[in-house]
Write a structure and sequence with these properties.
It is built from 47 helices and 7 strands. With 975 residues, the chain is mainly α.
Length: 975
Amino acid sequence: MTRRAGRTRRRLYEREAELAAVDEALGELTGLSTDDLDPPERPGGALLAFAGHAGLGKTTLLTEVRRRAAAKGCTILSARGGDQEQQVAFHVARQLLQPQLAGSSDAALRLQLGSWYAIVGPALGLCTAEAGAPPDPQGLRDGLDWVLTHLAVQRAPVVLVLDDAHWADPESLSWLAAFAPRAEQLPMLLVVAYRPEELPDHARQFRGLPGRAGQRPIDLEPLTAPAVGRLVREQVGAHADDAFCRECWAVTAGNPFEAVELTAKISDRGLEPNESGAHLLRDLATAVKGSGLIDRLDRLGTSSVRLAWAGAVLGTEIRPDLAAGVAGLGREEAADAVDRLRDARILTGPAGADGTLEFVHPLIATAVYRAIPDAVRVALHGQAAWSVVDAGLGSTAAARHLMETHPEGDPWVVHHLRQAARETLRAGAPDAARRHLARALREPPAYDDRAAVLYELGCASLLTEPATTVNHLRAALEEPVADPALRQGIVYRLSQVLAHSDRLGEASDTLAREAHLTSDPRTRLRMQSEKFMWDAFRADEPDSPARSRRLTRLADRLTGRDLTERYIIGLRAWDAMLRAEPAGVALAHAERALQGGLSWAVEDRGFEVPVLVALTFMYGDRPGRAEELFAAGTAEFERQGWRGAHLSFAYTLLAYIRFRRGRLAEAEDFVRAGLRLAERVGPRTPVEWYALGTLIEVLLARGRADEAVQVAEDHDFGEPFPAAVTFPDSQTVYGELLLARGRTKEAAVELAAAGRRLDPRGMRNPAWCPWQLHLALAEMHDAPERARATALEAVQRARRFATASAVGQALRVAAEVCGGTERTAFLHEAVTHLERSPAAYELARALVDLGAQLRRTGHSKDAAEYLYRGLEAAGQCGADGLADTARDELAAAGLRPRRLRAIETDALTTRERTAAVLTSQGRDRPSVAAALHVDEQTVTRLLSAVYRKAGTDEAGLADAIGKGPAEGLDGGRGR
């Protein structure tokens, strides 16, 4: 079959069906680039996967694919996995993408890649990594997706060919396996070939790719006897008789590679191709592979053997100068050895010192590598590491060889393994970095460097093996650490991974212990701030009130001069909100924390405190401000390439903000995006708890309780609940779900348990966790007096926090639990409060409830007004179930629902803006009404729309809209 270089193209035997599939796919692909007026019915991209055992002609087939694609004017991206390069991160990705990009200047690359430049550039070898935290693996895969998609569109049609996919590095292969299904939606043909028995688990998607072969790859079969006969006669002459040809087939089992090599041996030996010489074929076939191949190599002489061994160690693309250095040969001696290996059909490649060599077939490379004596192979890898470093190829190129050497306590080895780990980690390959550092630890490093290596190993395994990370970092703390900064880094990282592993108590204890040991006041303050942060997330904190008092005393005397102080002030804001201190207090601290900056993507700090500060604004009836902070924080995550758990949290919490604003359809879109990312991180992780809780709340609000139940069942949402505090609180959401299913007694048990967990910690703000409100609803039928007392206590707590949305929601639920005139009064007050809040969904619920109550008490005229308003508000929120309830109530009142207006936009009308500006300037309702020539009730509704659109309450109105001049005073009767 066809050799990779320096060989003439041979015929492909019995591959007509495979080539027909290729031609069909290429025909549809190249049809995308025509100027036909009628677009194709479906995208012209396709997937082709060829599976076959070694020697069945996969490489020859892919060579023909490339030839045919080039003839049709396609852009070709080509790569090949290598047995010796499997542990080189992004080896295949670089082969595919680097040639398309490497010719551009740095400025052109920055322009072409945009915000992805710093994320994918280091992985593809296009630039060095910039300062800052590395991208997470998912962020890097998203970046590679973008680059490949961009190339497919800009240089269409594109044919991507991956040979020996079973030997591709894990980083590249997992990326391509996930990307492959998208090829059908692009002007791209993706063709892969692999040995099925060697394909790793992380590429199992290739086994079932939907493409021209249906739901499975195209299996390559051995050649039949007639096909081998044609091959033999083409190579050795048409006079080869049938018995000879059939014996060739028998001894090679129809393997194309072995058949081709056998015909070459026949020609070399001058064997007559007839029945009399057929009995010699089995011995000749043995020389083609295995021990026979090695015997043939040995007969070429010591220099040839040494050069072949060096080439097998170096891998797929063999530089002659490197091979000579590894083999210990002079230039002329090496050149002679290369010529002999070419003549023996072991190596192939252009003549001269500048071209790269490769083995004629991977089977030969594997046989040669396995034939190297163990001790010699280890020594050759060590020499290869020195050679690639001396050649300027860097530590990462040397690392794969150092991984194969025996530990000898060599500082040079440790240095280059650590440097390679830094480079691969910065490029977005933490698993590869972890392997390098684990090997460096076994070397072992010098006594004084051991803690540093353990720390680096912990940082590299943080995302993939948190339990192992804890062990490494704890071991690092037990080592003598002379550098205080290193010890502090170990402590911060250890506390972080403990917290993210749902071991918050251990994280807090670690920081407390180290804070007691340090003598530096600023370090102690930082450790206190980290301890305060993790304690804030603990569901089992033993003395939360005492911690709150300490935090209050500390935060009140800080000025926010550095990030540590701002973190403490931000935690004080969050604590004030949780404990239902007046909202103004919490918001004032939140504003203090933001002065001087509060980045979400500082490498050695988490993003938790900036998130808590943003959410303080949300709970404080300033969701518009919270969204601004989330938008900035999400942009930081995306610039950094953090697109796994970080981005999932951002999308999920942004969804929660939209939910609380009453934008339920938008909330559902965001939280489903967050859940998709969370599912990549893993089941029952904190990020998944957040996403599931929010999605269930949104679905319940939209009236889709059955779907919410299904989501919970599909993801095992229930006990045991996480040890970390989540928002919305997972146990409370579970109780709410039980309540929606009518399982009131079970709901009451869960909700009461949530209260027993949160109340002793001082977490008593119903705006944050409305467990009391749901508990009151669960108990209203079996224990009405207790339910009433519970609801009224929640109202009292909400009044203490003093946000319009919290008070309005609590009053609405209290009204549902209470009866008679008290219910009506509570609902009127709830509507009054909620009209001054940004909580559109809660307002819609209160309006419908009030309308229904008025209808039942005989006030049909007043009921109609509230029901119509409630129906319109529910429709604009996307609360379909609530809208149906409003329609039913209108029908019961003998009224017909009005046609709903278009969905409300965020743009303020002229009258809304005028009312907002006048109010922000301190004008009261009567004076605003007089300026607009309307009544006070109209002003109330105008301002209610402003609060919903701007995402604020009255206290934050000036900041939300600016204090510009009032518009439209001369034409106030307009819009």
